[in-house]
Amino acid sequence: MNGRLAGAFQVIAPTVALMLLATSGCMEIPVVETGSKPALAIGESREVSLHALRLQVSSYEQVLTRQDMLALPLDVREKLWLYNLDLRGEAGEQRLIDNALANIRSLDIDDPSLGGAERNMVRLLNMSPANADLTGTPMAQLLGLAPQVGIAAQEVLAQSLGVEVSEPFLGGEALAGAVVDGVISSHPNARRRPIHVSPEHPTGEVPVPAGHLPVTLEAVVTDLQSLTTTYGPVSKAGQSHPGFMTGATKASLLTPEFHMVVRANANALPYKGVDLSHGERGSVTSIGKEAAPLFDFDDPEWMRVVGIEPKPAVTEMSFRMVEAPVALQPGTSPLPKPMGNGSVWSLPKWSLERVVADAGLRAFKERTWSKSWVLGSDPTPLFEVTIRNGWMELETKGNLGKPPAPLYLWDLMILVAQRRLHDGPNLEAPEVGRIAEGDASVQFTLKDVSIGVTHKQITDAIRRNLEADPTSLVSVASRVLDQSAGAPDVYYVRPKWDAPTAEQGDWLFFIHADDQTSGTVRTYAQPGFFADSGLTQPLHVQTGVVGDTKHMKVRISSGQTLYCGDDTGAAFRIDVLAKPSQLRVRLRITRVR
């Protein structure tokens, strides 16, 4: 026994039950059939005995370690969503992206491990009115006018943008929002999370709230290593994205003592069914098919998570942004509002330039301000700046010079970014060795970046999410505890003695896609139970029995005859024979066509 939950239910519980039944003499234990019988020929019959043994386990507690979870099939780990990680903070809270950008701003531009584009990006993120190099941009003309009216160029720039002289143009909140919405949330794998397939969710996915990253069991138990693959380059459903994570990703999420403790209520024995094609018995898992819930969410101890780091952090991550290989032009009109007609808005949301423009839009879209400067005692303005919702116009008088054309502040940011991201290594002569257009994509390898959430916040979120939407967890449990065997088309269900009168008796359930937990899902042209061999007169219902309204089902009694089709298109007569005992039925299966 390997200690897994599957082992607990499939080995311990059934073994104990069978030992008790055998020693008490209250029931003959049916022999488990093995091997595969040849398919029935037309007109050939076989008899099959099905039993309805139960072992109800209540509040059974099982410990799952990281090794147990890693032993689960990969698709199970990837489909069990745990929580959505909030990437950016509000009201002063610092989350993963806030901390990552602060980490980038603090990098030493003299670090030889940084490439030319990365050094330029660090300079750009730290650019303020005090250290701005606006050479080659329209703002350079503005700053050239300032000394002529006796004011410092830095003051004109700071006052125009409404920032302190030493404050970066692209503030943390605006930049974080642009990165999250533009680079991360535009990735197809970041926009939706897995959920149990159902009529309400036929694709098995639902949207993720803006600004969040879905976290699955696979991501947690691999310390986020799987994120490099999940959020790397992708082309999915007509959407392409260059990815924003590359290289190794590591995190300090779980301590060596990490484990989950789960309490479950379940019938630990499977339902017995029959493969019509071969007239052979098989098993269908009972997990998640009982009227009573698998997990009692009223029990505060139904799940405990132990061993999450007090302050989870990403210990290593490589974050990238891709530059568009085009030269951009500023807008010539404030329309369409609020962005204007600048060419940057035609770029993909994940492109570096689009992110800079979006950050500028967020920072300055409501900036409205005007000021005029005079020379000496002459009241006539020589120089005037007017900004309305980010649209900046400059006017000069006399021989002060020709001002730049009106433009949005974010278009100005783009023009600055295009110049500075391509500067050569010598800042004294930035035109020498300039980086070619399209080669200024950046990639930063960051260390020890705090996620910004505590272990309690993560644990509480996991509990809330699983309690609010337990279907995925139940689906995973049915895989983990899979008791299935063979390929039964129908199976026998006998409700407990205290079930409502309308549900009492012996029932045959027709297989459903959710019952087929592994392998290729079998499909049926005419599922259900019928009164005729042509399968045109349905006998089945879908009313509630043991809490189930999904399966086609029929109550059976001795002497009854019904017909079914299998997944091969063959048809079979099922004759219900005399009951061998209270918890058993015997069926004769005959292939009719």
Brief overview, please?
By secondary structure, the protein is of the alpha+beta class. It has helices at residues 5-24, 66-70, 74-79, 96-105, 116-125, 138-145, 153-161, 172-184, 188-191, 217-221, 227-230, 352-364, 409-420, 455-468, 471-480; strands at 45-51, 56-65, 81-86, 192-194, 205-207, 212-216, 234-236, 239-241, 245-267, 271-275, 280-284, 303-321, 369-373, 383-388, 391-396, 407-408, 442-450, 490-493, 506-510, 553-556, 561-565, 571-576, 584-591. It has a domain at 26-60 and 269-294 and 480-591.
Q: Can you give a write-up of this model?
A:
The chain is of the alpha+beta class and 593 residues long. It has a domain at 26-60 and 269-294 and 480-591. It contains 15 helices and 23 strands. Strands 11-10-18-19-20 form a five-stranded antiparallel β-sheet, with no helix packed on it. Strands 1-23-22-21 form a four-stranded antiparallel β-sheet, with no helix packed on it. Strands 2-9-12-17 form a four-stranded antiparallel β-sheet. A hairpin with a 4-residue loop joins strand 10 and strand 11 (280-284). The relative contact order is 0.16.
The gross shape turns out to be elongated
- Give a count of the beta strands, DSSP E runs of length 2 or more: 23
Mean pLDDT: 86
Work out the strand percent: 25-35%
Radius of gyration: 34 Å
Order the strands across the largest sheet as they lie in space: 11-10-18-19-20
